[in-house]
Fold:
Amino acid sequence: MTKTITIKESLNWAEAQLQQSCQRPRFEAELLLAHHLQKNRTYLHAFDDKHVPEIETFKSLVSRRANHEPYEYIVGSASFYDIDLKVEAGVLIPRPETEILIDLVAKIIEKEAITSIAEIGVGSGAISVVLARKFPNLKIIATDICDTPIKVARQNIKKFALENRVKVIKSNLLDEVHEPLELVVSNPPYIADDFELEKNVGEYEPAQALFGGMVGDELLKQIVLDVKERGVPYLACEMGYDQKEAMTLFFNEIGVKSFTFYKDLTGHDRGFIITF
Ligand SMILES: C[S@@+](CC[C@H](N)C(=O)[O-])C[C@H]1O[C@@H](n2cnc3c(N)ncnc32)[C@H](O)[C@@H]1O
Structure:
């Protein structure tokens, strides 16, 4: 028979298990237990002498986290911008820096009264869902080459009742998109194939969402060329912190009307906006 233990004892146990894999083991132990009990963290402190039901299930959540699996995959949800998005293995966990890309794109959409855009590499749907919620007249076609992101993005689009305005299709870049577009936004894979990632990323997040080619910027450059060729006026992309120089050379080589780079909150170069 499994021994029953209290909330306090479970947290002490989980904290010890998470020492190696988490920067804030106590906090993550609390998050996982709150998720397990379907309560908030305050409850854990108020009722720390209560017994934890189904303790083996909780222990398996903790052992997944102790094995570096991202918290978001364990609980099936990620906080992004002003919403919670469903996520699962096979879909990139949306990152806070991508919120900066959204704010920059939002400014262009507002200024130019844009109503028709495309997103390349929809993932969980993070960018498209947030933009569609911000702009009630905006129509978005979002592409991905992988099946799991397409499925999960559609679920998130449905969760926010955006099915009429955000369409997800399976396509390499924009190959299957035939509608006229005013802007393209993308957070494509941009990491070099041989770059060694932290265990929680490299072993759990999908390679197709991370690696952009031998150098890393191959897909970014292809996106720039495709969007230019179609005569779309604006392109906004996230990129790697060390890709500004190579992308600047490339923009000058192919000739674009103007471009600006932006930084993330840690001061690293993180993306660009092109006007063609
Ligand atoms: C870095 S993730 C971005 C996901 C999401 N937009 C976000 O910001 O969280 C890149 C996405 O692009 C997709 N992808 C990779 N290569 C692609 C291609 N050639 N055409 C379309 N999508 C692609 C991947 O499957 C992945 O979902």
The mean pLDDT is 96. The longest helix spans residues 98-112. The chain has two domains: 7-67, 90-275.
